[in-house]
Each structure stands twice: as C-alpha cells, then as structure tokens.
Design a protein that fits this description.
Immunoglobulin-like; single chain; seven-stranded antiparallel beta sheet; 2 domains; 2 helices; 279 residues; mainly beta; Jelly Rolls; 21 strands
C-alpha cells in the first residue's frame, strides 16, 4: 500500500464522522484584514472553552496544533484588538488558509468624552521585601494572567500600568490587556489597539511600564481587569527558563492558560500592579 493512500483515508474518515474527536493535527494559516487583506499581527487563535491555542506572528501567520480531544464540530475563535471576534467550525477551519477579520466598530464608551485633571498612582501591591512568584508558561498561547483592580472612582482613564516580572530570558514580548469586569470575571477588551512591550532580563525589583498615551481607555466603573499576555520569549543560550510574575501581598489573581479557555482563580497571592490614573 502506498504512503499517499493514508491522507485520503484520514480525510474520508473526518467527513464520515464529524462528531468524533480527531487525531492531533497541525493547521497553518494567516490572519488578514477583511478591508484590504493586510496581515493582522499577533491575532489570537484558539478552541472555545478548551486548552488549545496560539498567537499569530508579526506577519499574521500562525501554526495551531489541534489536539486529539478537539472535535470537528468545536469552534475556533480568532480575535485581535481592534477587530471583531470571528468563529469557524473546526471541520471548515481545516480547509482554509486565509482568515479575514472585520474592523470593530468603535463604541462610544471607548471614546474619552469627559475631562480628567487629577492624577494619582494606584495599586494593590505594597512595597515589601517578601515576594511571591507566579511561574507562567503560557507563552504564545493567547493566555492571560492578571487581576481585577478596584479603585475609589467610577470614572477615570489609565495613563500607565506598571508590573513586576522576573525574566531570565534575553527578551520577552508582553501584551497588555485592559478589560471590563462582568461580575467578578474579565469581560470585553477596552483597548482599541495593541500595547506591547519588549521585556529584557529583569529581576523581582524591576518595574515594567506600559505607556497608554494616546490610547487611554475610559473606565466607567470602579473595577477593571488588568491582564498580561506573554507573546514570545527568546534566550540566546537555548535553555528553558521560567517567566515569573511577582507579588508582594496575599490576594487573588485571575488567569487563563489559552486564549479561549475559561478563566480560573488563584487565591494565594496578588500580582504587583500599579496604575497611573487621571480622574
């Protein structure tokens, strides 16, 4: 029997049994704008409510591994800041190469319509020597780690966000997320464009700053979720290192390991997050 027969059988079985789980499959594609076919950098691709996902590169290209537990009727969700979330059924997703996203309509609640003159630094982490370390291995999966921050104002903008990370890689790329809070769970993204920082080798005392000048989201609630997504990490020595988020006090942080998996909570300690607000 020739080797060329096996792919044909796999495809036939796939369509004969669309409800069944599949063998692990690697899918390559590109995420582009519906408006002009321009590549969408760092789009997130993942299976809804399952631990499978990846992030596109700066040219919109991605490689998504579909594990055996993924069914052909599951949904693949592709999202990117500033674009509408788009879903595909897995069995159709596998036959496509280019995936188009539409520009998101800018809602009025994302536009700064009020003036904020007073400025303050606000955070939930004390400057203490006792440290917690939260190892984070979800690099390039679209996962996020952060927490819900409660502030004493119902209307404010965020100018800067500062976190502490212990990074032994040479360079990591970290994306900031600012989300509304629905109940106690992170909700829709409030940023309209990517805010990404290169993070070089750091230790637990270094503060990493994300500048939101010109992107300041308007928050009309006293709660906001501040999250961080590790897009990629590289090390010249080729060794495997841990990226750690640093905390200084007991509390709760919120996370999801993959882009479309469910949010989880860890009540052991909080993450050191400080924000420069205008209110």
């Amino acid at each position: 029997m020739s080797r060329s027969f096996y792919p044909s059988v796999a495809v036939l079985l796939f369509f004969l049994f669309p409800q069944s789980a599949m063998a692990q499959f690697e899918m390559r594609g590109r995420v582009v704008s519906d408006e002009n076919n321009a590549p969408i950098a760092y789009a997130s691709i993942g299976i809804k409510n399952k631990e499978a996902g990846c992030v596109a590169d700066s040219s919109g290209n991605f490689v998504l591994t579909l594990p055996a537990f993924v069914k052909s009727t599951d949904s693949v969700i592709i999202s990117s800041i500033g674009y509408e979330r788009t879903g595909f059924v897995v069995y159709k997703f596998r036959t496509m190469k280019d995936f188009k996203l539409k520009n998101a309509n800018q809602n009025l609640n994302n536009v700064i319509v009020s003036s904020h003159f007073k400025e303050m630094k606000f955070g939930n982490a004390k400057d203490e020597t006792f440290l917690f370390f939260r190892a984070w291995n979800a690099k390039g999966t679209g996962g996020e780690i952060g927490q819900v921050v409660e502030v004493p104002y119902n209307s404010f903008t965020i100018n800067r966000v500062l976190i502490k990370m212990d990074n032994k890689y040479d360079t990591c790329w970290v994306r900031l997320h600012i989300r509304a809070v629905n109940g106690e769970q992170p909700g829709e993204e409030l940023l309209n464009e990517n805010v990404i920082r290169q993070v070089y080798t750091t230790n637990s005392t270094n503060q990493i700053e994300f500048d939101l000048t010109g992107k300041n989201p308007e928050i009309n609630s006293n709660k906001v979720f501040v999250g961080f997504e590790v897009l990629d990490c590289r090390s010249a020595d080729g060794m495997t290192h841990s990226v750690c988020f640093v905390g200084n006090e007991y509390g709760q942080h919120t996370f999801k390991p993959f882009v479309n998996s469910k949010w989880e909570y860890d009540a052991m300690f909080s993450i050191s997050i400080k924000m420069l607000l205008k209110y």
